[in-house]
Amino acid sequence: MAISPVSNNPAISLPPDTRAHSVVHGDTLWAIAAQNGVSLQALIQANPQVLNPDLIYPGDQIQIPGGDAGGGHDASPMTLASQAAATGAIDAAGAAGGVTGDQLLQIVPTLDPAQAPAIAQNLNVAMAEANITTPQQQAMFIAQLAHESGGFRYMEEIASGAAYEGRADLGNTQPGDGVRYKGRGYIQVTGRHNYTEAGNALGLDLVNNPQLAAQPENAARIAAWYWTSRDINSAADRGDFLQVTKLINGGTNGLADRQAYYARAQAALS
Q1: Which of 132, 150, 222, 267 is most buried, most CB within 10 Å of its CB?
Q2: Handedness of CA 188, 189, 190, 195 (dihedral sign)
Q3: Could you tell me if residue 76 is inside a domain?
Q4: Stretch 124-129: mean pLDDT, rounded?
């Protein structure tokens, strides 16, 4: 079970109209703040139990201050990745098309509408970072991720990962590596070797903190890294969806479902 990085500091005094929000998959502090009309800084200040604002987990209780909690501009500078991601998403959507929350709902009809904007934001940042910029590339990328994650619902392999214990081909050379480096993220990165490679490429300490791979913003970036590291854009540019599927899956499992996502993505992003 994931444990959120929280402190034992006493909560600060909050306005009487403060309300609680239970974190769900896809949530970021930035998205929660935007959806509730409060500033990101005010939300962070109202939740001193969160030691790292980049790491919130499903089930965490976030206190949302009421009223005009926007605060001034005298807050100390933040290095919050989600804040940078929000800005990057806007730039990416403007410069390279990107995907909006509404478009993502067209592609993945089962997606929770409340989660769509944050997931779209994370996808846009990741696609811009990995140069997945044309509508065809983006349609294939989103379609493959949607299938692999069950419509952006599952961030971690249901199985324990014990089946991967001792798998040298995955780099699982130390006791406990199978469970420790089970499949996580939108494409379920698996094994010590892949966690190491992805972490090195993205500046994330996935080896010592494998749960980071299950965080939505990281899941999108890891998927984009995987896509780029295997030059999947080339197959996408050729319109070779079958080859894209093989490069993602190793075979053609779930091809019909992937193609259905792709058709909707083409329609939404055209």
Answers
A1: 222
A2: negative
A3: no
A4: 92
